[in-house]
Amino acid sequence: MPLLDFLDPKAVLPALRVSSKKQALQEIAAHSSKLLGLDEGMVFEALLQRERLGSTGIGEGVAIPHGKLPGLTRIFGLVARLEKPIDFEALDGQHVDILFLLLAPEGAGADHLKALARVARVLREPGLVDRIRATREANALYAVMTEIPRAA
């Protein structure tokens, strides 16, 4: 099974233009809701609620906003490279330019946590973040995110 099998090629935004954390969350909520057939406001509110608990900015310019949603039937991922880094209140204080949105069904339980761990593991691959930052096309960014050498 591919490490990020929940990332769809249509859920790749290689040059997202936003100027704030709120705008970034609105944009990824809008894009994901269209792909999933869900209410955009519901997706955005789920992301805001999670951010109120503490920033999902994990450091080194990366954030993994996530949430659980009623009506969602599968785990869903979306990756976005921002044109300009934004303040995301990250743990290390660095601005964020890479977002990986993860949405899970309301009753996902441990599957949600496992998917979060998989995303974090992929984003820690040596050189991967630099490759994401150098990528300007959706298909190339999708390839970077899904063709990572798998450790045994």
UniProtKB/TrEMBL annotation:
Source organism, top-level taxon: Bacteria
Pfam family, one: PTS_EIIA_2
InterPro entries (alphabetical): PTrfase/Anion_transptr, PTS_EIIA_type-2_dom, PTS_Nitro_regul, PTS_SugarTrans_NitroReg
Keyword annotations of the record: Transferase
Compartments where found: Cytoplasm
One cellular-component annotation, GO: cytoplasm
GO biological process: phosphoenolpyruvate-dependent sugar phosphotransferase system
Transmembrane portions of the chain: none
Cited Gene3D superfamilies: Mannitol-specific EII, Chain A
GO terms assigned for molecular function: protein kinase activator activity; protein-N(PI)-phosphohistidine-sugar phosphotransferase activity
Ranges where the PTS EIIA type-2 domain occurs: 5-148
Protein name (database record): PTS IIA-like nitrogen regulatory protein PtsN
Native organism: Microvirga brassicacearum
